[in-house]
Structure to design on (227 residues):
């Protein structure tokens, strides 16, 4: 199956700074990628759908100016958390695949904002 | 829209015990249903799936049957091992599909020798 990588695997930053998280599809051309957020000991919540060559689609309640998504190629989507604050600390996970039945998840990026 | 409710954890079992993790869903039509597993320090992996009513998904000794009468997809394993310790998520697609998933709250399983 497709391999999805994320970088970095963990990051610590100061409040007010911006952090970029990369999601790469290593052997699959991903026209669509999904970004999820997982709070400690909680479930994954879909944040947005990243579309190659066009604007991302955000779920209700997710601030698009806060969580900037760029999907400039078929193998890379980036999520930038702008002006991060401690409440943005979370585990961010991306996925891609050809169908709902075939979704591949990245290993996740743990963000800690001090 | 579609939704899923999953049994709260944590679940603590001794090795070789029987496992059941309950999952019920609300959905338009009959979407595919999934169980994903997240081992410590790793990403989500598809454990099993069922694509239509009465289907039974199975993998690594785990089973789940798609029951439309009770709108359930409970995960079972007859004899758990320490290596099964992980977080298990029940999931189904968003209404309208688009390949995005709705996840249950997750159930943490701890198996002790």
């Amino acid at each position: 199956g497709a391999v999805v990588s994320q970088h970095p695997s963990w990051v610590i930053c100061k409040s007010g700074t911006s952090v970029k998280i990369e999601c790469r599809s290593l052997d699959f051309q991903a026209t669509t990628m999904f970004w999820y957020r997982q709070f400690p000991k909680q479930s994954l919540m879909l944040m947005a759908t990243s579309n190659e060559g066009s604007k991302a689609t955000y779920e209700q309640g997710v601030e698009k100016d806060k969580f900037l998504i760029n999907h400039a190629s078929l193998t890379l989507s980036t999520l930038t958390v702008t002006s991060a604050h401690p409440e943005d600390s979370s585990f961010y996970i991306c996925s891609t695949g050809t169908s709902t039945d075939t979704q591949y998840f990245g290993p996740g990026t743990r963000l800690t904002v001090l | 829209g579609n939704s899923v409710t999953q049994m709260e954890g944590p679940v603590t079992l001794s090795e070789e015990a029987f496992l059941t993790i309950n999952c019920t869903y609300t959905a338009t039509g009959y979407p595919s249903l999934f169980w994903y597993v997240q081992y410590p320090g790793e990403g989500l992996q598809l454990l099993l799936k069922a694509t239509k009513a009465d289907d039974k998904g199975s993998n690594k000794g785990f089973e789940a049957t798609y029951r439309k009468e009770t709108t359930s997809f409970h995960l079972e394993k007859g004899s758990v091992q320490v290596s099964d310790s992980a977080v298990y998520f029940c999931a189904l697609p968003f209404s309208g599909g688009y390949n995005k998933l709705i996840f249950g709250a997750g159930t943490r399983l701890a198996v002790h020798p």
Notes: The two ends of chain B are 42 Å apart (CA to CA). Residues 34 and 49 of chain B are 4 Å apart (CA to CA).
